[in-house]
């Protein structure tokens, strides 16, 4: 096979087996955010040989920098006690915030006032009350901006002690923490001027306190004169209590919660109207620091989340641009693609690159005159000059071989456990139902290999009437018994393929072999696919036990948990799998792993194949065909039929003085900044960290451009380009105000998961908490003195959900507890999944939706169509669960339908056909549509919820209140605001953060 090239073809250079771990772990222990050494590169068309590739791990140093780089390159191996309520007081008029303030943090226990002791990561049983309230909002001036278009680039409340109580119905719940919140102050958007921003004049805002609360605090200072005209953009929590107060407090539900889900940023949309949609590119802050000294005070990760093939909203399509023989217009120095932020000069004969500022000649076939405003007269007919996202059709110089056909090869475990589970039958049926929908007709290639203790190859040649099986029992020296007809054209061999899929379930129905020669089978699959590349789908049920790559049981020694060796369990045991991942990537083979078992199968090792080839891990613990059939059918069908970008590479460019360093996700890092993606789809997102190369940035705007070069299923070589811009600021407060919680949590979660590969789980959780504490401490230092905030905890409105998401991340399966909290395979599979999710899907997984639906089901309303917008999202706490209600918990991966103990028996019978008074085993009850209106409504709701999240199928788990232990494992342990054994509740978490912020403020 001739490799694809950049500028000239050359033999690929593959290093030895890299030492990267399955989540691309960082090797550093004290500074997980420290960036990799700087690397500089530019891109040129075509494929070429480059520096040795590496695994996507920050611990692997980058290759030497070079003067040029490309989006395309060689196939390298890559490397019940009440605490007295709070009586808030208000300072005199004058200070701009009108804050409720205390001279110091005061806690009241038994009528005595004491200072709180330092709180460790795991909270003590006694917790003080935490009042909440917002001050005012401010806007700082940003640096002035060029007038010409430019390119890329969260009251006071009383909180009872949150100890566990028992309701009158016997259901354990956490007593609600009561909160009041003043109305949020009006925010004042920036007004874009030719030379910068100017804040709107401030308006007075009432804190909305009761008259009895309007007490002047003796410690309040005089007005801060110059600050009266500022509008502050932060919210706050007031920590303390006033002894003897009988104020009953206010509802704790006013604590900040993302009950509306993820909110994509819209910052500077007027100033940068040509930016690509945030679903494609999100920065952790939409204000880039202008200096290293400013960046060092940020503390949160600075970087981006890229989702290059995200599905367009409302069925829209990305505009396609074909320059034809002219060739794609790019900067001749930095290789940036022409975009809306370039500036045309000299009557339209030249254009200035927005990334490197080089003046380029306009090709004759691309010339157009400029109008009086300096714009091209044909700008409205040029999508590349008006849209932040376009797709270029790549000319022939971007390839040295014909584009590969879509190729699917299936590696199927047919041992006894696989047969008994029903997996083989479901997989065969699903394959057959999808054959007409596979992309790339009539070029699509297909092949099969089954294995137990031997390997079974299948001749699917079109001239045959039935497939021929060839068995290879030699596992030490793998060879192909029939090299030419193991991969066949689907349209030509359709009859033979159909016959094979029809006979596959019965072919091994009497198989009693329990061994698994997975490693040799993997080697054979690589040999079959090496000439074309494609997508390898692995269906594995048992622990590999024969031949190369055999694995042993790990994690059964509970003494290892909590020790310094614990992280070894989450890393691949045998380097064979990393080496195979490098080989597969070299041959442009992407791997998706489907793992089925109720026993240990070492997902940490198997998942490596998906991690380094841009693939995905699908985990079905305790798989039973009768229960999991619909989920497997849906997810496998989507995998087979969704549009895939084949033999792809991705690079993100940015302006002078900044660069991307560490990369996180599923890919192989071919060079310093080139990500190899043999098969990537619309469900994969990537994250990377940003650093400053220069001590001081002199530009006013930083531009970013994401370029994904790939082969479409139709056989075209294409380049999808996303362009965005962000202002450079000198004010730390502006960085906080423009922060994006979704992108921040996405990047933070990936770094934390990688940390678990070199450290203990609790170290990763401490790391998350430390970053949040440092960020809020730095933000507090900006305002605490001048506004005399006393014991208040303040934070910007843009990061009001950050503490809660941080808590949810620490309680996620990937990070929480030890052996008793999650099975090892389940934990590793969760980590692999989180490394690939987009920001919105990750936030949904961390803080799922909890809605009550019984009221909707029993009432008729012509205006209620059952869409998510018609339901109120509830806090994730047991206090939200009414024993007389019916609830749906949706995390984007599964549905949990919770039946309250006092729910109407008629309603339950209508829904599931079973009387709950008989204490049925709901795990064996199949939820299906029944012949009544209530059941049809419920199934309609579930259908619409699934349509809103097409990437996976939410399997339904039915659960009855008090059903142990299922209720605890499925639902109660996932109510992230509640305090469970060994973890903090929301209030305790906030207190810990606040106290740690105050200790060094």
TrEMBL record:
Keywords from the UniProt entry: Endoplasmic reticulum, ER-Golgi transport, Golgi apparatus, Membrane, Protein transport, Transport
Disordered: region residues: 1-170
Keyword Electron transport: no
Domain Zinc finger Sec23/Sec24-type: 328-366
Pfam families associated with the record: Sec23_BS, Sec23_helical, Sec23_trunk, zf-Sec23_Sec24
Predominant location category: endoplasmic reticulum
Sec23/Sec24 helical domain mapped to chain residues: 740-843
Alphabetical list of InterPro entries matching this protein: ADF-H/Gelsolin-like_dom_sf, Beta-sandwich_Sec23_24, Gelsolin-like_dom_sf, Sec23/24_helical_dom, Sec23/24_helical_dom_sf, Sec23/24_trunk_dom, SEC23_SEC24_subfamily, Sec24-like_trunk_dom
Gene3D superfamilies named in the record: beta-sandwich domain of Sec23/24, Sec23/Sec24 helical domain, Severin, von Willebrand factor, type A domain, Zn-finger domain of Sec23/24
Ranges of compositional bias, category Low complexity: 79-88
Keyword hit for Membrane: yes
Domain Sec23/Sec24 trunk: 403-639
Protein's GO biological process: COPII-coated vesicle cargo loading; intracellular protein transport
Compositionally skewed regions (Polar residues) per UniProt: 21-33, 122-169
Compartment(s): Endoplasmic reticulum membrane; Golgi apparatus membrane
Residue intervals of the Sec23/Sec24 beta-sandwich domain: 645-729
Family: Belongs to the SEC23/SEC24 family. SEC24 subfamily.
PANTHER family per record: SEC24-RELATED PROTEIN, SECRETORY 24AB, ISOFORM A
Protein name: Zinc finger protein
Natural source organism: Macleaya cordata
Lineage, opening ranks: Eukaryota, Viridiplantae, Streptophyta, Embryophyta, Tracheophyta
């Amino acid at each position: 096979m001739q490799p694809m090239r950049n500028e000239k073809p050359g033999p690929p250079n593959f290093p030895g087996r890299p030492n990267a771990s399955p989540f691309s772990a960082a090797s550093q222990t004290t500074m997980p955010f420290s960036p990799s050494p700087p690397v500089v590169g530019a891109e040129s068309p075509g494929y070429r040989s480059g520096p040795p590739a590496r695994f996507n791990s920050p611990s692997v140093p980058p290759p030497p920098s070079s003067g040029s780089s490309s989006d395309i390159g060689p196939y390298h191996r890559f490397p019940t006690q009440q605490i007295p309520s709070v009586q808030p007081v208000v300072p005199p008029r004058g200070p701009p915030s009108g804050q409720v303030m205390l001279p110091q943090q005061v806690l009241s226990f038994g009528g005595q006032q004491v200072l709180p002791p330092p709180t460790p990561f795991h909270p003590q049983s006694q917790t003080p009350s935490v009042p909440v309230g917002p001050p005012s909002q401010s806007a700082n001036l940003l640096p002035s901006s060029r007038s010409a278009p430019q390119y890329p680039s969260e009251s006071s409340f009383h909180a009872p002690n949150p100890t566990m109580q028992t309701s009158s119905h016997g259901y354990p719940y956490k007593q609600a923490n009561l909160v009041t919140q003043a109305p949020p102050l009006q925010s004042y958007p920036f007004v874009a001027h030719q030379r910068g921003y100017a804040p709107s004049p401030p308006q007075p805002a009432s804190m909305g306190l009761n008259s009895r609360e309007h007490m002047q605090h003796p410690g309040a200072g005089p007005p801060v004169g110059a600050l009266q005209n500022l509008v502050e953009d932060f919210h706050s929590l007031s920590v303390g209590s006033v002894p003897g107060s009988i104020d009953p407090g206010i509802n704790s539900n006013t604590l900040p919660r993302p009950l509306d889900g993820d909110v994509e940023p819209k910052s500077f949309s007027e100033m940068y109207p040509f930016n690509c949609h945030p679903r494609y590119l999100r920065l952790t802050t939409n204000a880039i620091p202008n200096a290293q000294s400013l960046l060092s005070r940020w503390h949160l990760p600075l970087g981006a989340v890229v989702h290059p093939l995200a599905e367009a909203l409302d069925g829209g399509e990305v505009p396609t641009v074909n320059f034809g023989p002219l060739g794609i217009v790019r900067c001749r120095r930095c290789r940036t693609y022409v975009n809306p932020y370039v500036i045309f000069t000299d009557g339209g004969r030249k254009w200035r690159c927005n990334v490197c500022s080089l003046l380029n000649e306009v090709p004759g076939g691309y010339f157009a005159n400029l109008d009086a405003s300096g714009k091209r007269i044909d700008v409205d007919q040029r999508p590349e000059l008006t849209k932040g996202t376009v797709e270029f059709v790549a000319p022939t110089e971007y390839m040295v071989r014909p584009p590969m056909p879509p190729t699917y090869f299936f590696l199927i475990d047919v041992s006894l456990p696989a047969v008994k589970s029903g997996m083989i039958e479901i997989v065969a049926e699903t394959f057959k139902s999808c054959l007409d929908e596979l992309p790339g007709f009539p070029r699509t290639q297909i092949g099969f290999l089954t294995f137990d203790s031997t390997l079974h190859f299948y001749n699917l040649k079109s001239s045959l009437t039935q497939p021929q099986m060839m068995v290879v029992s030699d596992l030490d020296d793998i060879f192909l018994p029939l090299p030419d007809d193991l991969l066949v054209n689907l349209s030509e061999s359709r009859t033979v393929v159909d016959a094979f899929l029809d006979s596959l379930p019965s072919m091994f129905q009497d198989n009693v072999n329990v061994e698994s020669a997975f490693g040799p089978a993997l080697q054979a699959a690589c040999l079959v696919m090496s000439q074309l590349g494609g997508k390898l789908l692995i269906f594995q049920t048992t622990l590999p036990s024969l031949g190369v790559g055999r694995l042993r049981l790990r994690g059964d020694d509970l003494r290892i948990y909590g020790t310094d060796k614990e992280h070894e369990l989450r890393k691949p045991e045998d380097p064979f799998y990393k080496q195979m991942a490098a080989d597969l990537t070299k041959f442009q083979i992407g791997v998706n792993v489907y793992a089925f078992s109720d026993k240990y199968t070492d997902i940490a090792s198997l998942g490596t194949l998906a991690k380094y080839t841009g693939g995905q891990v699908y985990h079905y613990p305790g798989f039973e065909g009768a229960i999991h059939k619909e989920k497997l059918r849906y997810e496998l069908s989507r995998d087979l039929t969704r549009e895939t970008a084949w033999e792809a590479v991705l690079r993100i460019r940015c302006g002078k003085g900044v660069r991307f360093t560490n990369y996180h996700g599923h890919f192989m890092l071919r060079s310093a900044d080139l990500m190899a993606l043999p098969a990537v789809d619309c469900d994969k997102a990537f994250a990377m960290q940003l650093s400053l190369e220069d001590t001081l940035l002199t530009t006013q705007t930083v531009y970013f451009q994401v370029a994904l070069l790939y082969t479409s299923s139709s056989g075209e070589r294409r380049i999808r380009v996303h362009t965005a811009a962000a202002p450079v600021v000198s004010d730390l407060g502006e960085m906080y105000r423009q922060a994006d919680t979704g992108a921040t949590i996405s990047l933070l979660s990936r770094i934390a998961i990688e940390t678990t590969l070199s450290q203990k789980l609790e170290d990763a959780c401490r790391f998350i908490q430390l970053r949040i504490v440092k960020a809020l401490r730095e933000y507090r230092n900006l305002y605490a003195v001048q506004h005399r905030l006393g014991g208040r905890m303040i934070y910007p409105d843009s990061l009001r959900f950050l503490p809660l998401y941080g808590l949810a991340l620490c309680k996620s399966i990937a990070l929480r507890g030890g052996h008793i909290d999650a099975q090892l395979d389940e934990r590793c599979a969760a980590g692999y999944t989180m490394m690939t999710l987009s920001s919105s899907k990750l936030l949904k997984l961390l803080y799922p939706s909890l809605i009550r639906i019984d009221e909707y089901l029993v009432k008729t309303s012509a205006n209620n169509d059952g869409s998510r917008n018609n339901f109120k999202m509830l806090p994730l706490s047991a206090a939200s669960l009414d024993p007389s209600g019916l609830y749906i918990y949706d995390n984007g991966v599964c549905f949990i339908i919770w039946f309250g103990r006092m729910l109407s028996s008629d309603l339950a019978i209508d829904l599931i056909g079973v009387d709950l008074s008989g204490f049925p085993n709901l795990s064996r009850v199949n939820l299906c549509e029944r012949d009544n209106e209530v059941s049809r409504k419920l199934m309609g709701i579930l259908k619409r919820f699934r349509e809103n999240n097409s990437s996976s199928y939410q399997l339904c788990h039915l659960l009855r209140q008090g059903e142990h232990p299922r209720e605890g494992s499925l639902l109660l342990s996932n109510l992230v605001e509640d305090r469970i054994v060994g973890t903090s509740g929301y209030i305790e978490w906030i207190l810990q953060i606040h106290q740690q912020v105050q200790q060094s403020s």
